[in-house]
Amino acid sequence: MTALVLPDLRWFPSWAATITDFGDEVMHGAGGWNLDHPLEPTEASCKEFIDVLAQKSSGDPAAGRVASTYFWITAGDGGPDDEVIGFLNLRHELNDWLREEGGHIGYSIRPARRRQGHATRALVLGVRRAGELGIDRVLVTCDTDNVASARTIEAGGGVFEDVRKDKRRYWITVAA
Hints:
Elements: E1 2-5, H1 12-22, H2 43-56, E2 68-75, E3 83-91, H3 96-102, E4 105-109, H4 118-132, E5 137-143, H5 147-155, E6 159-164, E7 167-173
Antiparallel strand pairs: 1-2, 2-3, 3-4, 5-7, 6-7
């Protein structure tokens, strides 16, 4: 089962494993851009990161940031052995940059847990959450050469609109 959970220190062991698994790869949707240093797989880094995400979720218009909700993507049976396997950032609105390149939702799944359907399920859950915020159409983008992400977006209901600045742009209508 794939779920979206709010960042919490109780998830530290699997969060640290996820950070380690990503290595130098970009963790879309994680929110690492809110820090002035790289994430480290330590409990202190996890706590600091959770605190920063909570502070930054209201947005910072001066820095070009909109209000957003950061989720950790988990997998498991809903019990205590569930693990963090990725990240999803749901932006509550679009500014000019997000409208062109970033979209409402950014997400990533750790390399060891890819090709198991988690990205599509997490995207569908993120679109549902967007609907709860009153968003009726969600923009999701991916690099033009990222075939796996394009397939994920299409499997999640994305309808291709166009390419702008090397980004494929898709719209997903939120179910009523």
